[in-house]
Each structure stands twice: as C-alpha cells, then as structure tokens.
Here is the input.
Amino acid sequence: MDNKLNSFIDKALSRRSFLAGAGSVAAAGLVLGASETKVAAASYGDTDILNFALNLEYLEAQFYLYAATGKGLAASETTAPSGYTGSYTAGTVIPGNAAAVPGLTTAQQQILNEIAYEEGQHVNFLRTALGSAAVPMPTIDLSFFGPLAVAAGIYTSSQPAFNPFASFDAFLIGAFIFEDVGVTAYAGAAPLISAAGVAAGYLNAAAGIMAVEAYHAAYVRTSLTGRAIAAGATTPTSSVYPYCGIANQVAALRATLTVGNSGAPSTGTGNTGAAGSSTSVEVNLAVPTTLTTPSTIVAADSTRALGFARTVNQVLHIVYGSPTVGVASGGFFKTGMNSIFATTTA
Amino acid sequence: MATQETQILDDIIVNSRRKMLAFSATALAGLVVGCSDNGTTTLPTASGSYSDADILNFALNLEYLEANFYYLAAFGCTINLPNAAAIAAGAPSAGIPITGSVGAAGTVSGGSKVPFTTVTAASYATETAIEEGKHVLFLQSALGSAAVAQPAINLGASWQTLATAAGIAGGSSFSPYVNDNDFLIGAYVFEDVGVTAYHGAASLLTVSGNLSAAAGIMAVEAYHAGLIRTSLNYIDPTGALGLIGLTTQISALRATLAGQVPQSPASPYDTAPDDFGLGAFSVTLGGATGYTATRLTDADATNVIAFARSTTQVLNIVTGGGAYNATTKAVVSPATGVFFPAGLNAGPYGFR
Here is the structure.
C-alpha cells in the first residue's frame, strides 16, 4: 500500500476515534457512527500513543516497585535511550512515604513482587518497542496520594496524609487508584492505533497489556471484596473492614475527573444495584452477604458487560487530579507528562 | 450519525485492514488460520473470505459454553430457562435465546448447581454467570439475523475427559460441581482461554466498533481470569491443598493442545508454552535478582503481554484436541470433542 494512502488512513482512523469520544466502548453498538463534533484534531502518530502509555507505566512501575522492594526502577530503565533526539528530560521520583509495605505475609509479598515485575516489564517492553523514540521518565510524585485522598474525602487535610505504603490494605487502595484506569486507558488507546501500527503488532501489544492490567485490577478488587467478606463486613463501609468503601470513594473521585463521562458509578452488576449513570465508567465494590448475591469484581457496563474505555484526555484529568481544561502538570506528574498529549484539552 | 464522508472512510479502513490481514508478514498473519468448510485447510489463509460476523459468531459459540457453565453452577439451570435466582441476580426474565440463523439449537448435557458454602465463590459464580449471559445477549444483538444458534454442549463427561488428559489424579471422577474449590478449578479451565481467544480475534476484526466491543469483552474475560486466579491463590497460598498444582496441570494441557497447531509465521504473542499455572517464579526487580513472584497474570514472562491464540488453537483446546490431527498434521474441520460434541455452529466461512 502506498504511503499516501497509509497516511490518509492513519489520520482517518485516529480522527474518527478521537471524535467518537470515550465512555462505554460499544456506546455506538457495532455501528461506528461518530458524530461530527468539532474538535481540534491533534496531529500525532503511533509513537505518541505508545509514549503516552509509557508515561503511565513509569508511574505504575515506580509505585509497585517501591511497595514491593522500597526502591524504584533502575536508572537505566528511566533515562532517555541511546539516540534519543526528543526534547523531554528525565525526571526524578518524589517518594513521599514510599517504602516497602511492612507486615506482609509471604503470599502477599510474592503478589507485590509479581505486579512490580510485570509493570516494570511493561516499561521495558514499551521502551524497546519505541527504541530511540522512547521518552525518558517524567518526574513522578508519589506524595500525591495524600492530596488525592483528601480530594476523595477519605481523609481531611488536618489528618496525617494517606499513606498507601503503610499496610497491605492501604496498598490495595493505592493500587485501586491505578488499575481500573490502566484498563480503560489501553481500551481507549487501542482503536487509535493506525493501520500501519496494527500491522506492526502495536494493536496486539496494546490489547495484551490491557488484559494484564485487567488481571491486576481483578486482583485488587477481588482482594478488597474477599478481605471484607472474611472480616465479617456487611457493607462496604463496615467498620470491621472499611476499605471497600474507601475504594468506592476513589471510584467516585475518578468518575468526577472523567470529564465528559462523569456520571456516578454503578452499584451492581445485575438488577440488585443501580445501573449507574448512562455515562458512568465506574462500578462500585459491593460486599456480598449471601450465597445468592452477585459480587462486583468486574468493572463493566451493566447492560452488555463490556469493559469501559477512557480517552487520553480523561486519563490525564485523573493522573493530574484536576478536572480543569488546559492543565499540563500536577498530581502524580508534578512537572507534566513527557507526552504530546500532556495538556488537558476538554 | 455517520455522514457520507465518514462512511467512505470506514470503507477504506475496512478494505485496507483486510489487505493487512491478507498480506502482512508480521504478527497478524500468524493469527490468521483459515478453516475451509470441506475439511481441507491451508495455513495460513490469504483469502480473507471470512467476515467480522464469522469472528463474532466464533466468540458467541464460546460465550454459549461459558454462560451455560456458570448458569448451571450458580443457578442449576441452562441459560434459556427462566430461573428465579438468576432473574433476581440480573438475568432476563424470559431467559436467554439459544436459537439462531445457523444450526438448530443444541442441548446442554451435564452440569448441576454447586452446593456452595462460601460467600466469596458463590457470589463470584453469580456475578460471572450474569456477565457471561450478557455477552451472549450482546453478541446476538450485534449479529442480528446472522447470529448462530447454541451448539450442542457437554458440561458433564467433558470434565473427566479433560482432567484425565491433564494427568490429574482421580481425573476420571473430577467434577466442578461438587464444591467451591472444584468449581473454581472448572472456571479456571475457561477463563484464560477466553482472554487468548479475544486477543487473537481482535486484530482480525475489520470494523472499528467491533474491535472496541471485542476489547471490552476481552477486558472482562481478563477480570474474570484474574478473579479466579486470585481466589485460588487466597485459598491455597502455599499450594498445600493441591489447587496450585491443578492449575499447573491444566495450563500445561492447554499449552500442549495450542502448541499442536502450527503457526506460520510465528506470532510474537504466542510463545511456547503459551500458558502458565499459578506456581511461583523468580523475577528481577529494579535490577536486583532473586525475588519470588506469584503468577496471578497469565502472560509471557518477558514482555508480560497476554497470549493470543488463533481460532484453530482455541478450537483444539475446547474440543480436547479435536481441531488438529497431530499424526497427519492436518487441521480437522469441523472440530468435535469434549465441550462441543457436535462442533461449533458456523456459517460457510466461519470457524469450526
């Protein structure tokens, strides 16, 4: 196929997907009927999409590595690759309370090791796939968990900052902040990949990483649900195990920050709970109390049970912790992402 | 609504991706395995004669299987029957249709309600049943008049056949309907396969909306797989109960069955073995070696990307080796065996 046609198709695919927006991935059913909303079309390619994902993987990897080992990625995994000609510079990790989570059982430690390894390998995979085009790690602010918890209403600003490295349950909340977002980010990004990128295997890679993020998200949600049941909790906010309720506060904050799809989270998979707003991309955790009550491990729409997707812009709002348009830094990325998409646009 | 301009773009996109499928020498081609309808087959196909509907119908066959398993385990009935407990949990009050334009609706043999004793396993079974049922409904709705009927499904003796093939001690009497733990093992047999099936199918789809939908279902299958693997890890963290060993045996069987089917050229997302049980492995973290990690994620150990399988590989797993004759080195179509005693329901260019 000639390059001109390829280029045309690339633009068409990217533009179509951007225009289609986010939300439930199959909002338009199987008919791709994008409305012609006037949105300034950014010029970007597959490299930019993969580098956006790389920024997110840097963040996740640093969080899990600190939680598992008390240390982050090796320097060689964060600096600009050989031959890099871009303008972004390598940042540092602002550790905050970051430390190896204390008091873990052997099984818990091995699970943290696994997730840390897997997110770290995603960093390395994307850096290898991008070659000299891979952006270096931006500054990662792991002290943002504190302000985020205040914004979610979990803690007040007069209390000591929320510390996801303090205990296993606190770690689960920290992980909860990221994992469902990772699934939706890859689900939203996969259709943006160009036809040439599909042929190069990028779509397959993105889909495969999305699945791994969903495995992780299921781990976090299953752990919170199972520990609540084991502790004898009867509601998510039961005092014997309040962490499902705390996770739901995080989900509510994420919903608010998912600009354009900021409806309240669904509260159930079947008709045992509210279906949620038609624009919701979040599902609250439930605490089943009988053998016939469904759990809500899966974050998916209540009609078709399809996983959600978020646009690049919606993901930015969450990791920056801001619903404002035109924001280029903040939250976990104190000096901004190293990405062409670094500024919120809608 | 789509304008004329966007419809033209769609056509170009569809046609160009078809060409990619037919001629690409990279990852995609490895995932394209062609089954013709007369029993003879070439690997891989360059004809591109199947459509998105064939791929979605392949998925629908698998969803009929999964949904019936979970409905039987959670509610004690098949998906087509109205059931008070299922309806209370979110199932449609009239049951789920099992008829379609291709094939007569097959019956489901075997299977019974699990006498659950733990709220965790019971609530997970209930949630998963409802979600898999919704996948059936969604695919039927998306396919419209092209949707295939439910094929004949065996959820009884299949388990003993597979357990024996996996070398599981006492496999000839294994049943996933006996207790909570055995139910989780039964679910384990399906879920990771669902992920690899949707992963393999995703890049075959030509319409962007179908790709998004497949990605959405794939994410849910991965949530389910993560749920099952996490649950087994919590119940048997050290492997002392033997559940971890069972997952290793099942994964090894799946990898063997998938590995029998040649892929040319090789797919980077289907390295051998393409399946791992829950046993621990050693990893490097932050440049330091010697950490021990669980395997709650079923993915390749280097890039940590979920595996993708071709339709023939998936067929070979769900038919217990019925899709490929290892002696004559030929694809068998239609593939029959274990869960699908009469094969899948598929159109002339569909995947059987």
Chain A has nine helices and four strands. The first helix of chain A runs from residue 3 to 20.
